[in-house]
Amino acid sequence: MTTPTDGNRRFPETRRGDHVELYQRLGGQEAALPDPYRWLEDAESPETRKWVEAQNEHAAAYLSAQPLWDIYRARLTELWNFPKSGVPWHRGASYFRTFNPGLLNQPRLEVAAGPHGPWRGLLDPNLLSEDGTVSLTAASVSRDGHWLAYSTQSGGSDWLTWQVRDVATGENGPDLIEWSKFSDATWHPDGSGFYYAAYDAPQPGEALTGTNRDQRLMFHRLGTAQADDQVVLSRSDQPDWGFRQIDITDDGRFLVVEVWLGTSRKNQLWVQELGSAQPFVELVGEFRAGYHLIGSEGDELLLLTDEDAPLNRVLRWNISTGERRDVLAQGAHQLDSVSLVKDGLLAVTLHDASHRLHLYSRSGERHGEIALPGLGTLQDLHTQPGDSEVFFGFDSFLAPLTPYRLQLPNTTPEVLGDTLSAQDTGASQDTGAYEVTQTFIQSSDGTRVPYFLIAARTLTRDGTNPTLLYGYGGFGVSVLPSFNPGMLAWLERGGVFAVANLRGGGEYGTAWHQGGMLDSKQNVFDDFIAVAEHLISTGVTSAAHLGIQGVSNGGLLVGAAMTQRPELFAAAVPQVGVMDMLRYHLFTVGWSWASDYGRSDDPQMFDVLRAYSPLHNLREGTRYPATLITTGDHDDRVVPAHSYKFAAELQRCQASEAPTLIRIQTRAGHGAGKPTALLIEEAADLFTFLEVELKGTDASQA
């Protein structure tokens, strides 16, 4: 069997099977498509394991040959080594936060009697595994501050294990809950137990690939076995429904549950009087819009909704009378979130992909804007309805997350300790040498699309700058300014970074999301390509120096862009991407993405998906960009078979001498909870690959 070559190195051999899959097209026609790498879907088979080992050796041979890799790894280690303090929150008489003093694989959970410390350790996940791959996923504290319910995940899998710890003693109780996923813990007001969501235990060998359906809402009473947990909600007649958000109103009267269907932004809203034997009242009994609880006052719920308001509004809904009235009407900008504080509301709005913070009365009168440090992102707003103390974090492209404290009615944020500016990270990185600009361009259909450019203030627009373009464009997720130590290493070596805000995201509300989903998904790729073309036409870079990167749905974006316009890019890095659009719904929670993608077993969507599915649009004999595909062997969100099959077919089709690699991390998943050591290693791979391919091979000697 002959295979294409990668420079002077041959690609690892990949067997092509003879499997053919039949699909129904609109009009009753049948389509027969070969699926020669179906065998790679079995991640545990000896043949797949051997293939993974060979591909990793092949990628390692390329990376280890670059002296630049050690340079990047050393610099990235310096840049990552600074104190990282999470945003505090308050329960009972105690304050809680996460904290990493520098290079710990996982942040520790700490507790203090006040927001300024001194802090003592409560839980250190670094002690839970030798390689740092067990992470703290969620931490929920009972209202009196006595009990901590916390979840961990292992090796990057989405599966959660819940345990309970006494905050005062730091000792665990006997409680152990397994096979929970996509869930927080919501404590009963009396601290007797908590609500969580769970699935049936998977069949042997299917923990990382089996479909997740029939989620149940459970109540766990402290000190009892999981087998004795009470089923609060279960809908076996609707196996795709789940119970994403579980809230108890501050007065302890009502249990409020968001019923979700996949990744759709639309949800039902069910309410039950806490402790009542009466069934839930379906306040919203259909999937017509999104409804999210802000808080309550007496019989009235305050809700954030996009019902008849694509940019969101706040309404009061009287549970007893059914009366509804607006508190905050839809404005000119996306209303991202709203929180109750003492005598008021805090509203976060999104202005061209950057956050603003506003204070209102409970009746909706505007009291003013709270000044944020600049163009960036507000993270983790922590409030309590009767408390004037507010905590939030803020970061930007050039400054790491900094926690702030507000003591209302004073509207001047106070910086909390244990933080460093970006200028103090690593070896005196001078972020003042760089600037962030925002540009608005027209996509192919005339739609106005923004992108951020992060580059040296002295940037020369001569078309030679190695430039990395990042995008996502899906599921109503907004891509906002955020700090990445790896990007600093890229900038200081002459790189340019661009971030596109594409349709399919949430930057401009529901209409912006809908403009990039289902049969409009091509708009996302067109927006991305339009930004790439603008970077080239304005002299920032050229096709010979332009690379693209995306993660998950962004990996799909990169796969579609490089197959549709291979000549436009010199390098491509699709990470944990959705590459097989015809079979994605058959694994783990893939079915839940159908609200954005549609499904191939729907004849109306088959041709749409087939037209852009990266795996199915590779063409033999095409010169594709240099490509580094990355995935994790424990990814049970986007199973690694997507990347395996795409890599195998890309290596077969590749007509250029450009490297065509796949890097499979072990004990790693979709990204959440990845240890610092792996983050640094992954970033060294990424930026070494990009610099070599976008600057030329001489860069490997830099």
Q: Which features does this protein show?
A:
single chain, 702 residues, alpha+beta, Rossmann fold, Methylamine Dehydrogenase, Chain H, eight-stranded mixed beta sheet, five-stranded antiparallel beta sheet, 10 helices, disordered C terminus, serine-type endopeptidase activity, oligopeptidase activity, Peptidase_S9A, Pept_S9A_N, Prolyl_oligopep/macrocyclase
Would you give an account of this structure?
The protein has 702 residues and is an alpha+beta fold. Among the domains are: 60-77 and 438-695, Alpha/Beta hydrolase fold, catalytic domain (Rossmann fold), CATH 3.40.50; 83-246, Methylamine Dehydrogenase, Chain H (7 Propeller), CATH 2.130.10. The protein has an 8-stranded mixed sheet, sandwiched between helices. Strand 18 (241-248) and strand 19 (254-261) form a beta hairpin. Helix 2 packs across helix 3. The longest helix is centred in the last third of the chain and has 20 residues, at 676-695. It is globular, with a radius of gyration of 25 Å. The chain starts with a strand and ends in a 7-residue tail after the last helix. Mean pLDDT is 92; it is low at 1-9 and 698-702.
Kindly provide the radius of gyration, computed on alpha-carbon positions and rounded to a whole number of angstroms.
Answer: 25 Å
Largest sheet: 8 strands, mixed
Head-to-tail CA distance between termini: 38 Å
Question: What is the CATH superfamily classification of the domain at 60-77 and 438-695?
Answer: Alpha/Beta hydrolase fold, catalytic domain
The proportion of strand residues reads 25-35%
Overall average residue pLDDT: 92
Q: Which second-level CATH architecture of the domain at 60-77 and 438-695 applies?
A: 3-Layer(aba) Sandwich
The percent range for helix content is 10-25%
Structural class determined from secondary elements: alpha+beta
Predict the CATH topology of the domain at 60-77 and 438-695. Answer: Rossmann fold
User: Which consecutive residue ranges, at least 5 long each, have pLDDT under 50?
Assistant: 1-9, 698-702
Strand arrangement across the biggest beta sheet: 34-35-37-36-38-39-40-41
Total helical elements? 10
Overall geometry:
globular
Total number of β-strand segments? 41
What is the level 1 CATH name of the domain at 60-77 and 438-695? Alpha Beta
Enzyme class: hydrolase
Family: Belongs to the peptidase S9A family.
EC number: 3.4.21.26
Organism: Deinococcus detaillensis
